Automatic annotation (TrEMBL):
Major site of localization recorded for this protein: membrane
Superkingdom per UniProt: Bacteria
InterPro entries: EmrE-like, Small_drug/metabolite_transptr, Small_multidrug_res
Protein name, entry field: Guanidinium exporter
Subcellular location: Cell membrane
Family as reported in the entry's similarity comment: Belongs to the drug/metabolite transporter (DMT) superfamily. Small multidrug resistance (SMR) (TC 2.A.7.1) family. Gdx/SugE subfamily.
SUPFAM superfamilies registered for this protein in UniProt: Multidrug resistance efflux transporter EmrE
Transmembrane stretches, start-end: 33-50, 57-79, 85-102
Sorted UniProt keywords: Cell membrane, Membrane, Transmembrane, Transmembrane helix, Transport
Membrane topology: Multi-pass membrane protein
Pfam families tied to this protein: Multi_Drug_Res (PF00893)
UniProt keyword Transport, yes or no: yes
Length: 104
């Protein structure tokens, strides 16, 4: 169950990061509220995951899901640039998450 909590926490991290971008410096109330709710959900689920998972594993995978998810969402929803270097960086993050999972 801890891995499910961790995956959900990572998804909420992507939600709050995207909502933060849409909040336009906290000037738009709805995205700002979505961001706050996403942060609360993300941290709450991360806390539940950390009951059973090692700190290093849980935190690395949580931030990795957030980083790669935000990268993909930026490309898909915001038209951000996709380049070989950015793709390589995302693949390195994914590789690190896989190695962290295999080592725990």
């Amino acid at each position: 169950m801890s891995w499910i909590y961790l995956l959900a926490a990572g998804i909420f991290e992507v939600v709050w990061a995207y909502a933060m971008k849409l909040s336009d410096g906290f000037t738009r109330p709805v995205p700002t509220l979505v961001m706050i709710a996403g942060m609360i959900g993300s941290f709450a689920l991360l806390t539940l995951a950390m009951r059973d998972l090692p700190l290093g594993t849980a935190y690395t995978i949580w931030t990795g899901i957030g980083a790669v998810g935000a990268f993909l969402l930026g490309i898909i929803m915001l038209g951000e640039v996709i380049s070989p270097a950015r793709v390589a960086a995302a693949l390195l993050i994914i590789s690190g998450m896989v190695l962290m999972k295999l080592s725990s």
